[in-house]
Amino acid sequence: MAMMAVSSNLALKSSVSLGKTDFMGKTVLRQSAAPASAKSTVSLAVRAAGYEEELVKTAKTIASPGRGILAMDESNATCGLRLASIGLENTEANRQAYRQLLVTTRGLGEYISGAILFEETLYQSTTDGKKMVDALTEQNIVPGIKVDKGLVPLAGSNNESWCQGLDGLASRTAAYYKQGARFAKWRTVISIPNGPSDLAVTEAAWGLARYAAISQDNGLVPIVEPEILLDGEHGIDRTLEVAEKVWARTFYFLAENNVTFEGILLKPSMVTPGAGCKDKATPEEVAKYTLTLLKRRVPPAVPGIMFLSGGQSEVEATLNLNAMNQSPNPWHVSFSYARALQNTVLKTWKGQPENVVPAQIALLTRARANSLAQLGKYSAEGEAEEAKKGMFQANYSY
After folding, report:
1. CA gap 105, 9 in Å, rounded
2. How far is 69 from 184, CA to CA, in rounded Å?
C-alpha cells in the first residue's frame, strides 16, 4: 500500500514561497511568487512503491559510527586509466580481478558501510562464482550503484556541463534494486573558473532532485553529489560562496520534488581553496569553512554527509575529515572516497596475484584510518610518503 511521504521537506516547502526561474538563452528571468492566500493547503506526496521505512533504515545503516563508503564505481574507461598506470590492459578480466580484490577483503565491513559499484560490477561474480553484491552483503556492506550517464556540454553556458541519465532511470533503478543495490549515486559537477553560471547551477540542482525522487520511488537511497571541482586559483571564501549557492538551490528542488530528506545521503566537496591558489588551508580551516556551509544549508534531517576526496592526497583527505569530527555535528560526517582509499592499494597490487593480500592490507589500513577520522581519533603519525602525494587532475571525469 502506498505510504505518505511526510518529511522535513514539507515544512520547507510550506513555509517558504520562492519565485520560479526561467531561462531564455543565457538570460535569467525571475518570476515573482504569487502572494500567499489566507488559507494555504499542503499537498502530500504519495510514494508509489512504499519504500519510505526501508529508505530511512538503509541511510542510517550507511551512516553508522566509524564507517564510510568505498567508491569503486569508476567507469570502464576510467578504470582502464587506473590499470594502465600499473601496466595492465583495460580488459574485463583485469577489471574483474581488481574489483574482486576490493570486495573480498576480509574485515572491510568493520570500516566500510557501503560500496558504490559500476553497472558492470553489479552483475559480476568472483572467480569462485559468488556475486560481487553477495561478497559485500556478507560483510554488512550495502551495495550501491552509479546511475548517471556522464557529463556533456551544456548549451548556452560558459563552457560548462550537465549530467545525463534521467531517460530510462526508473526502469534501471528498479532493475538495480532487484539485483541487490540499495542506494544510488549521481555525480554532476560545478566549475568555479567558468562562473559558475545560474544556468549550470540550476541544471545541476534540478537533475539531482529528479534523480533523487526517481531513485526513492524504486527503493534506492540517493546520494546527492554536486561536486565543486578543485580547478582554479580562487580562495576558500569564493569556494564557500559558490557551495552555499549550489546547496541552497539543490535543497529547494529536492523539496519541490517531494524527496524525503531522511532517506538521502549527501556527497559534497570539502570547502577548500582552488588547486592553483597560493594560500593553502589547514585541516582546521577546511573544517571551519565546511561545517559553516553545512550548518547554513543542510537540514539536520539528512542522516549522513559522506565527503568526496576530490583529488586530495590520502592523508590530506583523512586529516580534513578528522578535523571536522572534533566536535559533535547534527549529521554523521564521514567519507565516500575512491582515489583516497585505492591509490596505495593499486600501486601495491600491480596486477600480480602474489600481491593481492598485501594490497588488501593496504586497503584495510586506509579504511581504518578514515574510520578513526570519522570518530575524530586519527593521527597522521607513521603515514607513508606515498599516501601524502596529491592526486588532483584538472577537469577530472569519473
Report:
1. 39
2. 12
Q: What is the pTM of this model?
A: 0.85
Of 302, 373, 299, 300, nearest to 336 (Cα)?
373
| List 74, 267, 316, 383, catalytic entry | 267
238 φ, ψ (degrees, to nearest 5): -65, -40
In contact, 378 and 322? CB cutoff 8 Å: yes
DSSP state of 270: P
Please say if 225 is a catalytic residue: yes
Rg, Å, the chain Cα set: 21
How many Å apart are CA 342 and CA 74, to the nearest integer? 11
What nine digits make up the cell of 17?
514561497
**Cβ neighbours, 10 Å, residue 127:** 10
The residue annotated as part of the active site, out of 74, 225, 256, 383, is 225
Task: Look up residue 90 and give its three cell numbers.
Answer: 583495460
Percentage of the chain modeled with pLDDT above 70: 84
Confidence of residue 56 (pLDDT cuts 50, 70, 90): very high
112 - beta bridge partners? 68
Contact of 7 with 216, CB cutoff 8 Å: no
Q: Characterize the bridge pairing of strands 27-31 and 20-24.
A: antiparallel
Catalytic (active site) residue 54: no
Q: Report how far apart, in Å, the C-alpha atoms of 96 and of each of 17, 102, 140, 308, 367 are.
A: 50, 10, 21, 24, 21
Report the pLDDT value the prediction gives residue 284, as an integer from 0 to 100.
Answer: 97
The β-bridge partners of 146 are 185
Beta bridge pairs of residue 333: 305
- Taking the CB of residue 300, how many other CB atoms lie within 10 A of it? 12
| H/E element, 242 | helix 236-256
